[in-house]
Amino acid sequence: MPRPRFPLGATLLVVLGTVAGANADSRAPTYSLHTRLAPGTVDRVQTKVEVGGDLTVVEDSKVKRLKMSVVANLGYHERFLLASAGADGPLRSIRHYDQASAAIKIEDGGFQPVLSENRRLIGAQVDGAEAGLFSPRGPLTREELDLIDVQGSSLMLGRLLPDGPVAVGATWKHSEAVLAALLRLDEVGKADVQSTLASVKDGAALIEMSGKAEGAVNGVSTEIELKAKYQFHLKAGRITWLGLLIKENRSIGHVGTGLDVVARLQTTITPGAEAEQLSDTAIAGLPISPTPELMQLVHRSPDGKWEFAYDRRWFITAESADGLALRMVDRGELVAQCNVAAVGKAEPGKLVSLESFQKDIQRALGKNFGQFVKAAQRSNEAGYRVFRVEAQGEVEQLPILWIYHLVGHVDGRRVSFAFTMEGELFDRFALSDDEMVGALRFLDSEMAGQSPAAARQTPTATSQSASNPLR
After folding, report:
1. In sequence order, which residues have a C-beta less than 8 Å from that of residue 81 and are 6 or more positions away?
2. How confident is the model at residue 214 (pLDDT cuts 50, 70, 90)?
3. Is the pTM of this model over 0.90?
4. Fold topology of 8-283
5. N or C end: fewer C-beta atoms under 10 angstroms in the chain?
6. Nearest to 338 by CA among 400, 405, 419
């Protein structure tokens, strides 16, 4: 069974707000809880996450509950690059992580994802309800992204605050649109989360937050209940501490396990820090906005002999020594699935013909095969020979389109890709197969022992451009 995917971002919560009304005594003093944040400001951020509960999976047509726990520690400096004054305007920062690790236990097993050394520089951005992380130095792995893409992003904490002055006892609600970005959900359909100014003492405002939110992620529903406190430093004009207690109940989905968990998160922020790794000299020439290539993820085969980059809409659902299975989810709908596998090495100079490849496909499809639509052979920019074959057929009277690729190295190494989708979804699938197959790179022997990130720094390892329970 592949590792169940359990996102830190699925269980940790911070929310945005707009003033819903001040219900405090109008004669009481009011306080302006407005973030004062200028580009170039550097913070020190430390976050600890503890999660416990159950994962739910389907085995042999039955739902099974698996005990799990997570302890994660994240530490980084964050330099703000763009801070919009509007409630929904863009935000942008760049971070350097000196600590990013987790210990994940599932039943009697477990693993410990880490962020590789040459992916410690991370760009963060928020634009409306969309939020994302990327590395200016190259694509992340899914495990690396899941490790650091937690809810309660420090970049967005200022939007927890009310729009105008409030008195002790005043309350304000938080918008569904921004909740979706901070919860790392595709959408929030219903929420009653609100904050209350509980007290002001010794130059600090203590705010309490509570409520429920219902939403969806990757096409499945989730319910979240939270209680939280956060502290606003009046002189600094910044939130400096956040504590969250969250309960989440998430359904089993196309690409992830179900969740029935309780999470605790504590974040401490120290404004006015310094970080040489984020100086003008250190980040000069690096992209501070994500490119399509940087927003891709990368997967390395277990034996370290090949890797490929892929769109974030693809999720790894199973992996073995021989290959892996992925599913594409777009706007909550399952669009396609893909199987990737290393094929037996051919004798150099004696690779199979396109016709033989088509015969193998027809045999594999058996009675489901209808007809071939296209068949082509080419050499790609990496110098590999690529077969691409489209076939139509039916499975249980449902029209199906299969797209097969066979990629061969001149030395005889080969990797196959098999994409499957309902015929009516082909337009949404578009050229996803060509993008994934085009990003495949066979790794030289001296690179096979390196991490994916390390190998990607070597030009011959990749071109332009696993299932992890953290995200």
Report:
1. 39, 92, 93, 94, 288
2. very high
3. no
4. Lipovitellin-phosvitin complex; beta-sheet shell regions (2.30.230)
5. N
6. 419
